[in-house]
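Researcher: Next entry in the queue.
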Amino acid sequence: MKSRPPAPAEGALDRYLDYLVAERGLAGNTVASYRRDLGLLRRMVGEGRRLESAGAEDLLRALRRFREEGRSPRSVARWLAAVRGFFAFLRREGTIREDPAATLDSPRPWRTLPRVLDSDEVEKLLAAPDRATVLGLRDAAMLEVLYATGLRVSELVGLRLANVQIEAGFVRCSGKGGRERIVPLGEEAVAAVRAYLARSRQELLRGRASELLFVNHRGGPMTRQGFWKILRGHARRAGIRARFSPHTLRHSFATHLLEHGADLRSVQLLLGHADIATTQIYTHVNRERLRRLYASYHPRAGWERGSPPASRGGCRPGRSPCSG
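Model: Structure for this entry, 324 residues:
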């Protein structure tokens, strides 16, 4: 039996990205990160050579360069995962006969604990938008929904009016891999969305129609980058100076639920994690926070008896993560 000739190499990257969408069902943001990582390999391979012509020496040269640049093991491991997937795909379809990434070892990434806001910081952030203004009402609704549900930012900005059941008090969203889940809304989030729909959204749309729940100041779709700028401004006004990102509210949602007695499996379902191992990072966060609390409050841990530090305030009733 004759061996199958290699498939045409033209458009190998596009074929691979199409495969990730059509057969693997990966989300658009994930596919975009694969494109960026493989685009980096293309630049390293150089002009005049096809990406699929890269050999083991090219990949090793790229890894040496990453080490010189001081890239984190996690970043390099993600890049290697994209490269391995690409060349394994080419090998299966017959474009290449040898997989140059087959023998490469991944660096061992260290696990970093996510940044989490405490209850006081959450309250200050949620109070930062000026709810007397059109944009402030919208921003308040977005922040309240994000903290009440733990949605990813891409899920938040992609919410459609039909996804939000105000009377029933829940949202339906489609997460990574197209997995759909239903997440409850707290009273505060419901009230904020009602106010936004009644007094803000139509003014932003200026007579136009949109299926999206949240729109930008011109009435168009809200983007992840646009929301990040909005969030950064409110965090500054709330006095939050530490490292902060939209995902911080998602981390805070999960951590506060666990602190108030939720079980890990329930938090996994609310976050839309396919694997509970992903959710378990929040148990590490809890242990670290408990260690700090112990150091602050235990009579043998450093402070003098009779003069414990002032306790922090809790969330107001109605915030989903703190009302369990």
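Model: Residues 1-10, 303-317 have pLDDT under 50 and may be disordered.
Researcher: Noted, moving on.
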